[in-house]
Structures are given as structure tokens and as C-alpha cells.
């Protein structure tokens, strides 16, 4: 059925009780967003055009709404939007009361809510009260001017739009008041336009029923639509218009089968990208398909299979651990330490597949770094690599190993080149991602993850472009020196590039200084680090060609062995041992070691507490015990000093202090991740507080268990990341006394 609702339910603070309100369960359950919905993607300009359309009485498309009593995960509409904000912050507790879930039309309804009740990136919606001249604009132009502005920067005639919508008096009175605010005298035509605009705002946003929606009613007719049917309807409804990305569609299907999919995905991506990479949801979902034998082709139909979705949920711990281990290997053993240097994330899929299916061989396999570096430098996974990925994973299964020569042969048979000659290497130039990869290989002393992104290393021309552009050659057609001797490829080539710190390349740094000036004040160590020929006469523009030839020799001598041969610095990956990754076990699971009752002075898991009188005393006690604390897992340490709440679940182990405070350990995390109650002084504790969750904010679904009454939804919680078990002991001591 088709129904309509008034915009007043969004704009007015006090709307009639008969109307449905956004984020208001007291009004017929309220409008909410199901968790299968993608993030809000409209830009501020799109929102401004939507309000212009409404003021011009243009129709907007019908929404699709599902009325249901299902206890389904949903979130509230965002009032104060910030780009990149995690959707998990807006999740609300599940309930079995009637509610209205927007399946199609989220972008429009969310835009209206932001414009009328909230802000966009700290800016509120203002209306140019003098705009709207009926004779001055064509149909495709903006007639009624809206703009998101900082309130402090909004000057007349820009008026906060929500003030006009929520005005309680007569429109004429407000129109005259707004006209009086003008710092200059207005003519009668402009005053009339202002009054007419106020009337139009009141009519469109308060009186008319402008939003129509098609209702799918599962309350009055519970058998009409199953949840699986709703997901399929959602996908079909979002196949046109501003289309959902393929990952949005796939993730909506996964979300329908796994209530904490978005929380787990956010957590995984946060950990993967903490060191300067840009892993995304598309890659993770594609990885899931590859690891489960579904092929690399990224197809929505594969996620419609309930068995596939169930296997992803069941194996999420192993999947995320495999991706995390390859990411750590990439950073620690290939020195590819930034997103700029990673020319293809798809090129990591064979390694992730090998780590996932053959974990017992991962730690002893040689040649992994050689594989990564060769395929990244030659861009072997460019274009459409899905078939290549499938061929490589099949070869890994045939060999039950990661045999680099055979895998290279598979790549060559797929018609892709792995050859890197001197000429192709030296042709890599300024602006390419390959140059960052090469720089990562030899500039290992540079910090690629500074606290401020603007301090990241920068690629710079050794001989400034401006100086080289001034070098001219004789032009026989004109009889003058008018031909540029060094075109862009000659200026941008690898041999004329170096890596500088942000400070070196900033104000007062190298800038446009010639090498003869810049290198004159540098020592031998600096020249060696940057592979600069140690001959000052080559640092002059007149000897640019000789400089390039000499530096090319130094580059080839340094880089070719790294790429073509197994580097002497390549070591076995830091990976869990086979006993850490049994088929049913997960990384970071508890290491159940019983303390020596005669020699271990620590309290047992009976609820007693390790009372620490000075920081680190527990660490000293452990180091003097017969069992070194460093050999215990985080869960084992917690079990030694606190009382277990219950048997650990697959993902969570819970503990309680003698004071009754609860503490939960994420068993799947690659670092020590804890959930705690909110206690005083958290920000000043000295421990890494990663996130604060209010009472309505979604968290790990395992915390909803009856075993965690103080940490489940409905209570505020804190999430912590700790470096090691020494810090964990200090944390236990602080948490008990906080």
C-alpha cells in the first residue's frame, strides 16, 4: 500500500502524535534504518539541491518502508554527520515492538534529517532568504539557495533554516522580521520575496504531506514477508538510481545472517589499517570468497547462499587472523610499510589463502617476500586478476605448499610478465606507486607512519624540475636554443628522485635548491643512504646526464638483488605455531598453564587479587617465578589473577574482580583487546583507551550474554588495547583500584 507522511514529522520539534517521527519510538515505533543499509553517501551539495527541489514543489521518489515487530538490528538516523563515522555508533538495542524500517530512500530521509535537525561535518543548513526569484533561473539551475555553513560565518541574508521551519507564529510576522535584519534597505520586491519564501517553507515542510512511501506490513500480516524476502527486496530496490556498490549489496546479505558483522568488520579494518595501509571492505569480502573456495569473482549471488554466509561467520576468526598475519608479514618482512607502496591488494590473496589453509607451513616457508616484491614491482595483478587468483590458489592446493617458482610459472602462463630488466626498473618514475615500493625497500630508516599524515616522507626531484626546464637545445627550424633538452620522462625518472622527510622538503628545506648546494652540506652517510654519487662535479646541472648514469648504476646494484634474489634480510614470518592453530582453535586463545603450587607466588583463580603496591610489581613477581609470565597468553594471565565469570565462548573470555567489576577479553583479536566497565580516570590512566561506548552503542554481541550483565547493551563500556602481558598486569591492578 502507498502512504504519505508530512515533513513536519522531521522539522517540527512537537509533531502530532499521529505522525511517525524519525528516531522516536513513541510515535508509532518511529522510522529507523535496518542494519543492511549502507552508510550515508550524499555530499553536502546533494543535500542542498534536495531542499531546492522541495521548495520548487518538485516530487521526490517514493520510499520503501518495512513495518515489523521482528527483533532485528537497526540504527538511528544520523543527526550530526561526520565523514568516516562508524555506523556502530548509531545502533540501538533490539526490540520486538512495531517499528518502521526504511529499505529504500535512506539518502533522502537522512539528508532531510541532517538539514532540519543536525549538521554536516560541523556545518548547519542555512537558507538565503532573498533567493527564489522566479524570473532569474532556468529549470536546471538552483533557485532557492541552501548552503551548509559554520554558524559563526553565516551573515545576512543566510538564515538558519531550522529557525524558519520551527517558527510558531504567522509567516508574515517572521518574513517582516527577517527583512528588518538586513543591514541595508530592501526594495519592496525583495521584501515580498522574503515573506513569500517563509510561507513556502511553512507550507512545504510543515503542512503538506510530501514524503510518500510504499509499506510492506509484517505486523498486521506476519506471514507476508520473511526476513530473507526483505533482504532480497532491498537488493532489488537498490539496483537503480544512486546504486549501492557491490560490497554494499554483499555486506547487506552478510549482515542479515550475522548480527555483529559491521562491528567485526570495523574492528578488523581498524587493526589492519593502523599502520598506514588502506584495506577495505571489498577486499575482505572478496578474500572470504577465495578462502572458502568460491572463486575470486565478486558476485552477489554467492552471498545469497546461506551456507556460504554461515561459513563466513563460523570461520571469521581464522579469516581475520590470516589477513592480519599477511599484513604483519608485509610490514615486518618486506618493508612495504605504506599504502602508497602496495601496488595491488589483490596480489596478497594467494598469501592469505596459503596462510589460511596451510598454517602449519606458514612459519617455515621461504620466498614469500620475493613473491610479494616481484608481483608488486611488475604489477602482475593489474587489470582483471580474478582468473589468475583462482589458478594460483589451485596450484597452492596441488602442491600443498607455496612454491614460488611454480607460482611464477602460473603467472607467466596467464600472459603476465614478471620480468624486470634494468631498463624497466629505471623507467619507474615520479608519481607512480612502484616508486614508493622501491623507496620502501631501501629507505628502511624512514618513518612511514608518523602521528601526523603531513609528516610522511615525500618523493622529491634531486635536480629541480624548474632548473632542468631551463636547459635548452638548438632548434634547427628556428635557429635558436628553444628545444627543451629534458622532457618530463627525463626529469621524472627514478634516478632523479629521492625520498625526503617532510621537514627536509618543507619551508627552509631543499625546495628548489640544486644538488650542488644541497649535498655540499651533507656527510658521506647521507649520500650513501640516498645512493648519491660521491662526486661533487656531478651535482651541477651541466653534468646532469653523467649524474643520471652514475646513479642508475648505484640503484641497480642496490635494488636488483632485493627483487630477483631471496634477500638476506628475509626471515621466517612471525606466525602462530601449528599448535596455536588447530582446526577448532583460534589465535590468541587461552594457554591453559597451571602455576607451580610450590614455587609460584601468584594467587590462584579463586578470586584473590594480586595487590600491587608499586607499578610493575606483578611483573617482577612473574619474572622470579618458575613459569615466565611472558610465556602465558593474556587469557592465562587474567585467569591467574581474576575470577572467571563462566566458560569462555568462541570469541569472549569473561572475568570479575573481587569488587564485582567485569572484564572481557576478545579472544579473536590480534592484540590484547579488553572490554571494561566505565570507571573514573580512564583517560588519565596511561593505558590505550581505543573507544568509549555509550549505553545504546552496539558492541560485541557475546557481551549480551547473561554472563555479562554489566557489559551488555544498555550499559556504557570502554574498549582498551594493551601492548603485552606486562601492561596487562598493570592494567588489572589499576582497574581494581580505580
Structure description:
By secondary structure, this protein is α+β, with helices and mostly antiparallel strands. The chain folds into four domains: 2-212, no CATH class; 245-365 and 381-416, no CATH class; 452-564, no CATH class; 588-737, no CATH class. It has 28 helices and 22 strands. A hairpin with a 5-residue loop joins β19 (662-666) and β20.
Structural class: alpha+beta
In angstroms, what is the radius of gyration?
31 Å
How much of the residues is beta strand, in percent?
Answer: 5-15%
Helical fraction equals: 25-40%
Domain GmrSD restriction endonucleases N-terminal: 27-254
Domain GmrSD restriction endonucleases C-terminal: 439-557
Protein name: DUF262 domain-containing protein
Region (Disordered): 568-611
Throw out a few tags for this protein.
alpha+beta, 738 residues, 7-stranded mixed beta sheet, 6-stranded antiparallel beta sheet, 13% strand, 28 helices, 4 domains, GmrSD_N
Would you spell out the secondary-structure blueprint of this structure?
Layout: E1 2-5, H1 8-11, E2 31-34, H2 44-55, E3 63-68, E4 74-75, E5 80-81, E6 91-92, E7 99-104, H3 106-117, E8 119-120, E9 124-128, E10 146-149, E11 158-160, H4 161-165, H5 171-180, H6 188-207, E12 211-217, H7 227-237, H8 246-257, H9 261-272, H10 281-291, H11 300-304, H12 306-314, H13 316-333, H14 349-357, H15 359-362, H16 368-378, H17 386-399, H18 404-413, H19 422-427, H20 433-442, E13 458-461, H21 465-469, E14 472-475, E15 480-484, H22 488-492, E16 497-500, H23 515-518, H24 524-529, H25 544-564, H26 617-624, H27 634-641, E17 643-644, E18 652-656, E19 662-666, E20 672-677, E21 688-693, E22 717-722, H28 725-737
Parallel strand pairs: 2-7, 3-12, 5-8
Antiparallel strand pairs: 1-12, 2-4, 3-7, 4-6, 9-10, 9-11, 13-16, 14-15, 17-18, 18-19, 19-20, 20-22, 21-22
Helix pairs in contact: 2-3, 5-6, 7-8, 13-14, 14-17, 17-18, 27-28
Amino acid at each position: 500500500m502507498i502512504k504519505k507522511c508530512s515533513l513536519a514529522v522531521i522539522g517540527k520539534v512537537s509533531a502530532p502524535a499521529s505522525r511517525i517521527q524519525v528516531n522516536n519510538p513513541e510515535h508509532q515505533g518511529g522510522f529507523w534504518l535496518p542494519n543492511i543499509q549502507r552508510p550515508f553517501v550524499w555530499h553536502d551539495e546533494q543535500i542542498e539541491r534536495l531542499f531546492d527541489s522541495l521548495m520548487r514543489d518538485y516530487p521526490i521518489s517514493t520510499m520503501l518502508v518495512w513495518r515489523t515487530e521482528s527483533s532485528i538490528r537497526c540504527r538511528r538516523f544520523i543527526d550530526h554527520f561526520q565523514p568516516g563515522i562508524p555506523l556502530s555508533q548509531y545502533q540501538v538495542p533490539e526490540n520486538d515492538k512495531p517499528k518502521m524500517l526504511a529499505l529504500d530512500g535512506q539518502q533522502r530521509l537522512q539528508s532531510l534529517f541532517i538539514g532540519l535537525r543536525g549538521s554536516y561535518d560541523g556545518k548547519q543548513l542555512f537558507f538565503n532568504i532573498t533567493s527564489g526569484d522566479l524570473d532569474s533561473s532556468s529549470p536546471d539551475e538552483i533557485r532557492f539557495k541552501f548552503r551548509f555553513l559554520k554558524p559563526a560565518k553565516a551573515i545576512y541574508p543566510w538564515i538558519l533554516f531550522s529557525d524558519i521551519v520551527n517558527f510558531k507564529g504567522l509567516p508574515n510576522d517572521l518574513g517582516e522580521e527577517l527583512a528588518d535584519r538586513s543591514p541595508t534597505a530592501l526594495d519592496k520586491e525583495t521584501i515580498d520575496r522574503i515573506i513569500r519564501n517563509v510561507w513556502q517553507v511553512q507550507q512545504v515542510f510543515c503542512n503538506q504531506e510530501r514524503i510518500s512511501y510504499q509499506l510492506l506490513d509484517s505486523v498486521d500480516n506476519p506471514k507476508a514477508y520473511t526476513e530473507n524476502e526483505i533482504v532480497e527486496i532491498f537488493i532489488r530496490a537498490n539496483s537503480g538510481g544512486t546504486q549501492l556498490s557491490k560490497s554494499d549489496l554483499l555486506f547487506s546479505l552478510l549482515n542479515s545472517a550475522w548480527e555483529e558483522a559491521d562491528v567485526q568488520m570495523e574492528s578488523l579494518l581498524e587493526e589492519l589499517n593502523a599502520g598506514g595501509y588502506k584495506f577495505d571492505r571489498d577486499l575482505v569480502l572478496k578474500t572470504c570468497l577465495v578462502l572458502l573456495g568460491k572463486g575470486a569473482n565478486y558476485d552477489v549471488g554467492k552471498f545469497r547462499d546461506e551456507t556460504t554466509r554461515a561459513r563466513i561467520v563460523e570461520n571469521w576468526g581464522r579469516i581475520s587472523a590470516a589477513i592480519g598475519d599477511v599484513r604483519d608479514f608485509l610490514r615486518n618482512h618486506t618493508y612495504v610499510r605504506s599504502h602508497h607502496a602496495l601496488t595491488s591488494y589483490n596480489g596478497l590473496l594467494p598469501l592469505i589463502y596459503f596462510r589460511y589453509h596451510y598454517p602449519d607451513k606458514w612459519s617455515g616457508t621461504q620466498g614469500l617476500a620475493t613473491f610479494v616484491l616481484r608481483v608488486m614491482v611488475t604489477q602482475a595483478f593489474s587489470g582483471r586478476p580474478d582468473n589468475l587468483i583462482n589458478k594460483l590458489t589451485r596450484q597452492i592446493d596441488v602442491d600443498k605448499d607455496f612454491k614460488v617458482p611454480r607460482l611464477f610459472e602460473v603467472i607467466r602462463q596467464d600472459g603476465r610478465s614478471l620480468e624486470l630488466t634494468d631498463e624497466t626498473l629505471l623507467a619507474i618514475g615520479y608519481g607512480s606507486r612502484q616508486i614508493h615500493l622501491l623507496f620502501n625497500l631501501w629507505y628502511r630508516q624512514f618513518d612511514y607512519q608518523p602521528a601526523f599524515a603531513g609528516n610522511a616522507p615525500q618523493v622529491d626531484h634531486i635536480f629541480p624540475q624548474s632548473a632542468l626546464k631551463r636547459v635548452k637545445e638548438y632548434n634547427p627550424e628556428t635557429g635558436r636554443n628553444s628545444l627543451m633538452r629534458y622532457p618530463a620522462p627525463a626529469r621524472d625518472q627514478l634516478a632523479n628522485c629521492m625520498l625526503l622527510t617532510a621537514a627536509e622538503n618543507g619551508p627552509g628545506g631543499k625546495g628548489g635548491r640544486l644538488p650542488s648546494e644541497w649535498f655540499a652540506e651533507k656527510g658521506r652517510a647521507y649520500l650513501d643512504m640516498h645512493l648519491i654519487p660521491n662526486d661533487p662535479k656531478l651535482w651541477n646541472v651541466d653534468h646532469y646526464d653523467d649524474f643520471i648514469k652514475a646513479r642508475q648504476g648505484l640503484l641497480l646494484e642496490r635494488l636488483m638483488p632485493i627483487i630477483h634474489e631471496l634477500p638476506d634480510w628475509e626471515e621466517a614470518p612471525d606466525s602462530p605455531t601449528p599448535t596455536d592453530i588447530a582446526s577448532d582453535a583460534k589465535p590468541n586463545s587461552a594457554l591453559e598453564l597451571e602455576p607451580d603450587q610450590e614455587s609460584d607466588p601468584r594467587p590462584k583463580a579463586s578470586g584473590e587479587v594480586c595487590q600491587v603496591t608499586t607499578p610493575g610489581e606483578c611483573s617482577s613477581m612473574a619474572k622470579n617465578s618458575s613459569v615466565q609470565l611472558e610465556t602465558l597468553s593474556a587469557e592465562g594471565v587474567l585467569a591467574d589473577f581474576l575470577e572467571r565469570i563462566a566458560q569462555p565462548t568462541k570469541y569472549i573470555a569473561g572475568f570479575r574482580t573481587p569488587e564485582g567489576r567485569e572484564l572481557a577479553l576478545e579472544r579473536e583479536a590480534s592484540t590484547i583487546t579488553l572490554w571494561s566497565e566505565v570507571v573514573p580516570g580512564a583517560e588519565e590512566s596511561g593505558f590505550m583507551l581505543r573507544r568509549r561506548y555509550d549505553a545504546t552503542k552496539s558492541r560485541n554481541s557475546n557481551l549480551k550474554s547473561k554472563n555479562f550483565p554489566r557489559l551488555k547493551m544498555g550499559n556504557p563500556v570502554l574498549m582498551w588495547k594493551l601492548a603485552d602481558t606486562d601492561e596487562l598486569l598493570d592494567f588489572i591492578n589499576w582497574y581494581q583500584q580505580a
